[in-house]
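Private note to self, pasted from the team thread so I don't lose it. Backbone tokens:
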């Protein structure tokens, strides 16, 4: 555990995923030492691919890890496409190679989650990460904060940052355990080796196939060695919310029966797919209490329909580190400033992600036809400029926490 210096608090981060390690890395960039406690016995990222949009890429460049990530990522060039479920008709297409950097100063990449995690971890000293520490309690009643771990270990800190995911023990301690809302949707995911994937799926493009009650996304990752596949479908009575749960290829195929044969061939080429239920949680009105705060999925779990989960955790980390650096003498106020900056943005994204689920899953008919025409007429990069062009620097000047 880091020790207190004359002018800096002891900082503990619970969770060694993308959000937790990004927080440690940004804090180190601001001159802080922080200890990351991770319940796993090694740092590893489950899941498969993710999108590194320009807003995330800017922060990764600030950390000095974007170029390293780019070696194993795929720069999207061919486009960002929406296609019709039945026959692959292109509803909307954006040439990201010519537009993204011009509009937002960075390209869009797709990457394996493990590659992103490794890039961020390279900025965190190995001695600052303590593994095999499952937190079972947070005591906020004393003059210092105490984390209790399974096995009897404990640690004290002046500031605790809960980056411990959707089942956050820090959130439950601060605000009480609350049941998630059943969304009625589930997700499938798979990685398809490139040599088994059709050519159209190997292109440096992010392609979204949309249809009644379902949609499917694919893009290359890991330097093009794999195609990442993630799809959304009605969940029925399936409620397992775990990234380690699996399904069968036949179950995956059954959800997309009647879709374009190119797409079902891609599903057949996949290995054992993962499957998890999308459970919903209402946005929190606040994230912090004295020296404790939340970050990433612990603070704002959201549907993945804008592919912004990791990006928002990285933005959280950058803002939190800056707020603590500028408010080192009063961490509690610094944490209130952090949440005042971040909550409006993440709450808006949570709402937008809900709306996207409804729009993407319209049944065929007049409303679907109007949606398709709107997609054909709009520029998705410009429409979503509030996401990709977000200016973190301006947010500091605009937002001051109330004491």
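Design output:
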């Amino acid at each position: 555990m880091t020790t207190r210096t004359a002018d800096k608090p002891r900082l503990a981060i619970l969770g060694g995923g993308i959000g937790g390690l990004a927080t440690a890395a940004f804090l180190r960039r601001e001159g802080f030492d922080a200890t990351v406690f991770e319940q796993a016995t090694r740092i590893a990222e489950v899941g498969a691919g993710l999108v590194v949009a320009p807003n995330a890429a800017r922060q990764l460049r600030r950390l000095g890890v974007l170029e390293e990530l780019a070696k194993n990522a795929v720069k999207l060039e061919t486009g960002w496409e929406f296609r019709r479920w039945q026959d692959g008709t292109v509803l909307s297409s954006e040439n990201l190679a010519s537009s993204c950097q011009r509009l937002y100063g960075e390209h869009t990449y797709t990457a394996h989650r493990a590659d992103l995690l490794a890039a961020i971890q390279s900025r965190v000293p190995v001695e600052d990460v303590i593994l095999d520490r499952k937190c079972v309690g947070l005591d906020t009643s004393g003059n210092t904060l105490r984390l209790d771990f399974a096995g009897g270990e404990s640690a004290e800190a002046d500031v605790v940052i809960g980056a411990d995911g959707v089942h956050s023990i820090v959130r439950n301690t601060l605000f009480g355990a609350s049941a998630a809302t059943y969304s009625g949707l589930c997700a499938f995911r798979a990685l398809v080796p490139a040599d088994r994937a059709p050519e159209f799926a190997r292109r440096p493009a992010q392609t979204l196939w949309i249809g009644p009650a379902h949609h499917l996304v694919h893009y290359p990752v890991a330097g093009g060695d794999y195609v990442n596949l993630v799809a959304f479908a009605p969940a029925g009575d399936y409620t397992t919310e775990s990234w380690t749960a699996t399904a069968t290829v036949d179950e995956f195929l059954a959800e997309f029966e009647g879709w374009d044969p190119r797409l079902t061939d891609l599903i057949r080429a996949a290995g054992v797919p993962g499957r998890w239920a999308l459970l919903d949680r209402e946005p929190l009105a606040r994230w912090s209490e004295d020296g404790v705060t939340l970050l990433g999925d612990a603070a704002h779990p959201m549907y993945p329909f804008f592919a912004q989960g990791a990006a928002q955790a990285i933005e959280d980390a950058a803002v939190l580190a800056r707020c603590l650096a500028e408010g080192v003498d009063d961490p509690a106020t610094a944490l209130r400033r952090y949440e005042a900056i971040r909550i409006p943005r993440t709450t808006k994204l949570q709402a937008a992600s809900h709306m996207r689920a409804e729009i993407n899953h319209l049944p065929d008919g007049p409303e679907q036809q109007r949606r398709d025409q709107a997609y054909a007429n709009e520029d998705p990069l410009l429409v979503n400029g509030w996401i990709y062009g977000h200016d973190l620097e301006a947010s500091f000047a605009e937002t001051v926490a109330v004491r």
